[in-house]
Design goal:
By secondary structure, the protein is an all-alpha fold. It has one domain. The chain is built from four helices and no strands. It is globular. Its cofactor is [4Fe-4S] cluster.
């Protein structure tokens, strides 16, 4: 299954193993690919929406995605359990990320 944003992603054609790292391994190579990707936000939104618990998505680890979700809930941009798709711009304005 090709994700809706995947065709335009920097990671297209990359070895997926670098995005699904083992404990203690560096996430820097995957994050370097994500940096500057024009669909980075869509990828991140998708991973949060579908509660991806493994891998680097939108340049963030699962811990970073969970933290971002908690921050969105804390500032009132997102209700607990609500969809995040389409709130990226508002969230960036509120959280400064």
């Amino acid at each position: 299954m090709l994700l809706p944003f995947a065709e335009d992603a920097n990671c297209r054609g990359s070895d997926s193993e670098q995005f699904f790292i083992h404990t203690g391994a560096s996430s820097k190579p995957a994050k370097a690919i994500c940096k500057g990707c024009r669909v980075k936000q869509e990828c991140l939104d998708w991973a949060i929406e579908y509660r991806m618990v493994y891998g680097i998505w939108g340049g963030k680890t699962v811990k970073e995605r969970r933290r971002a979700t908690r921050e969105l809930v804390a500032v009132g941009v997102r209700e607990p359990g609500a969809s995040v798709l389409g709130v990226a711009e508002e969230a960036s304005a509120v959280t400064g990320t």
